[in-house]
Amino acid sequence: MSLEVALARARELAARGGRTLLGIAGPPGAGKSTLAARLAEELGPLAVVVPMDGFHLAQGTLERLGRAERKGAPDTFDAAGFVALLRRLRAAEETVWAPEYRRDLRHGVTGAIEVPHEVPLVIVEGNYLLCEEHGFAPVRELLDEAWFCELEQELRIERLLARHVATGKEPGFARDWVLGPDERNARLVARTRERADLVISMD
Q: Is the pTM value of this prediction over 0.90?
């Protein structure tokens, strides 16, 4: 599905009436955040983006648990907290305040994203929206529609590497991380592709 078709579909979802949750999944670097931001820009007050990354466990917590070297893996998120937020968002009876991940702080900040109850479309994006393990299994049934972003492998790795370097990682370390933990996570996410309603090529 092309970007133009995705935009048209998002407009349809926003016009359905009531609250609709659209999930955008895909491996690291595939363009989930870019697509979600573009949709929200086009839809204006009709949509709000709520990234799953706000539920990263704090860096200090990951270090204490011995998971810091796998940051970004499914068990480095508060999956139960994320599921609870989705249930509140579906109710749409009040303004909901969602967390936002801050790369400079290396953890999420609570109450950073306002989701007014009258906003019809909430765009949720993250790696593990279609995952059936590590506490993420309830997510799929809470989404009205789920899309999967994919990008040609070499380009995805190139963009992901550039992002890590831009956020402060030394190039050699960034490459090891992209080809190590990030790639293991990407393979896990790729296996969830078939659970999506639509697949979007970000090439």
A: yes
Place of tokens 């690291």: 28
Instruction: Give dist(CA 6, CA 1) in Å, integer.
Output: 7
Give 97's strand partners.
114
Phi, psi (degrees; rounded to nearest 5) at 108: -80, 155
Amino acid found at 45:
P
b/e 169-187 (16+ beta carbons within 10 angstroms → b): beeeebbebbeebbbebbe
User: What tens digit of pLDDT does each residue of 142-201 get?
Assistant: 999 999 999 998 999 888 888 888 878 888 888 888 888 889 999 999 999 999 999 998
Domains and CATH numbers, the chain: 3-201 (3.40.50.300)
